[in-house]
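User: Continuing from earlier, I have the next pair ready.

Assistant: Great, send them over.

User: Here they are, in order.

Assistant: Folding the first of the pair now:
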Amino acid sequence: MSGRPTIEIGLSAAVVAVERDAPEILVARSQDDLAALPAGPFDPRRRRTLEIALRASVAEQTALELGYVEQLYTFGDRGRVQSPDEVGPHTVSIGPAGRGSGAHAP
């Protein structure tokens, strides 16, 4: 193995709606049963684009089909997912915003 760092790409979706003049955020249950943004890894061998992977992750975790999707921000800071001194892959998180479609949107 070369000295190059391993990079993983994570996708986290912020799906927002306004209901009765109040914002609502779509959440899914994480592996430790906490409320979290729908999220998943980007594996280009499985799903060829970031958008396809994001839509699939949100649908699998929440049963919501996304309408409009736009990338908001990319986080690449060391220590954001792991502590700065941990070994292992470095995670780059891409944070798109989405809008649900249909009656089940948040």
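And the other member of the pair:
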Amino acid sequence: MAIRPILKEQPVNDEDVYDIALLTKIMGTLPLVMELEEQGVVDLEDSIGTLIPELADSIKKILLFKSMLSHYARLQAWIPFHRYTLDSITSRPMSQYYRNSKSSIYNVVSRTKLI
């Protein structure tokens, strides 16, 4: 699916696709963070190492919560985890992760003819 660039001379129609990923932080994360901050559970000045003990021994421990929320933490924007589900020689999807049909374990079809 392609996302058509928004041009003033093209009217919006039912086929247009919009990237709403930018709204997830505002609509989902922000209200929760505000509530937790009001309750004193978190502080925007807290370090990630304080909030997530598993990261206390990592380089990320010094990052501030507010830096992460405001995109100033300099974290990698996207990590292509899907590459770990591809065969290292053929680059084809590995059957242990992908199926051609639904089952009781794999009940979501993401695409046909992957393998």
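Worth noting for the second one:
Helices lie at 21-38, 48-51, 65-69. The chain has a mean pLDDT of 82.
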